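Give me the fold.
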Amino acid sequence: MHSYLLNERIDKVITYKDIAEKGKGIKEAETEYVEKIHSTVNGLMYSYVQNLQLQETSWRDLNGREYPYAFITKEKGSFTPIDPFSLRVDMRDGVSFQLATVTDDDPRDYRSVAVTVTVAIVSGTVKITVGGHKEQSFYLTDSGDKYLPVCNFIKDAVIMRLNSIQVGMTEENEKY
């Protein structure tokens, strides 16, 4: 016959109150995580726009619709800006989005270049990863303009993307 140790005592009985307190603590940690990610994205966008040294922050298309020169969107080629605080944050991987920079504000034929940006928290430190001609990660510190290296890399990625656009053929890519 098996003994299931039914008379062994548990030092503490877990109650619903214990479970609810643990759940509340997790919810508070998740809220803090999301707020930190959103405020980082917002801070990056503010710093990027300032760093571009724009004379105006927006321009108008042929129909009079106003567009910012730099904005967040979910997909490349989209001219629909998204509020940084509306981005859906994954509790493990943070958030990824496209940071678009207008490269031509011609009201009839406007264009932009977008780079992929991911913001996450790794071991308590904010990590921003930027895709472009190459991918690079930045760990933010609270000293100086913490976004400056990220902004410079994004601008470099935009220029490199523009440099890669080919108009016409070269002898190397000519096809017969």
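The radius of gyration is 24 Å.
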